[in-house]
Amino acid sequence: MAGRPTLEQVAERAGVSRATVSRVVNGSPTVAPTIKEAVERAIAELGYVPNQAARSLVTQRTDSIALVLSESATRVFSDEAVLPGIVRGVSQELDAADKQLVLMLAGSMASHDRIERYAMSRHVDGVIIASMHGADPLPNSLHRMGIPVLCGGRPLGRSPVPYVEVDNVGGARLAVRHLVQSGRSRIATIGGPQDMVAGIDRLNGYREELRGSSLRSIVAIGDFTRESGAAAMRQLLEDDPQLDAVFVASDLMALGALNALQAAGRRVPDDVALVGFDDIEAARYADPALTTIRQPIVGQGRELARQLLRLAGGEEIAHSVVLPTELVTRASA
């Protein structure tokens, strides 16, 4: 048969109306099993492929979900575990649901405007936004437009947008408690960026755990990169040369801190114990292997996709889902 098979040709082959073929293609439950079987057999014999654009006009659905990462391309594709892990988790869950992932980067206000226009044009059935900085206006803007939207991490400020996050405060407290219980008495922290909820909450967890003790807080701030972890560690050694432990708010920063400690002649863990956060693969292969707080990175991505699909399907979902963290003890502490 020349050309692309049409809906009419499928209907003729199956001996049914065009409307019946359309109902089968669009998954209607009102078609009798024997008729559905005849239509599906005709589709297979002719090699018919539904026109997705036309189908979307009928169903008002695109079967696509956007994942927006509020970072530059350089940052996303140089990240060694966290953001790629979230992408992997979202993709796995969408694949299982036969949905398409549309990955978008929002590293500037211009890109925010572009994403708003794209979502307003209903090219996707919903939007997941992760790695937000500051009081990002994008989630609330999409919500006001009536677009199903979900955040990876609690939005800063008041927001009606639901979210999925990990227990950052509780994980930080676990890390500091471990250091206190191991007998460390001058426990510093390298906090994450203070325009991100993960950075804010992990610093709060560190301070909360020290609050009930006689230990004072010693703080430096990084931006979740190796380089910033090394720079912050050098600053801490200048501020308090006698420190004997550091909780670091990400594994990448902890690896940078480890290099800085070794360059300064400090033995880990003999002189300074070190605990990170994330449990990226590189943490296991550091020398010494890094004690850390494990967060379910891929699991968070999967949960984000599950919740967004429910929201896009018209279901009510919980305003917040908080996933647990756990201490993984290795040689560095």
TrEMBL record:
PROSITE patterns for this protein: HTH_CROC1, HTH_LACI_2
GO terms of molecular function: DNA-binding transcription factor activity; transcription cis-regulatory region binding
Record SUPFAM superfamilies: lambda repressor-like DNA-binding domains, Periplasmic binding protein-like I
Pfam family, one: LacI
Cited CDD domains: HTH_LacI (cd01392), PBP1_LacI_sugar_binding-like (cd06267)
PANTHER family assigned: HTH-TYPE TRANSCRIPTIONAL REGULATOR GALS, LACI-RELATED TRANSCRIPTIONAL REPRESSOR
Name of the protein described by the UniProt record: DNA-binding LacI/PurR family transcriptional regulator
Lineage, highest ranks first: Bacteria, Bacillati, Actinomycetota, Actinomycetes, Micromonosporales
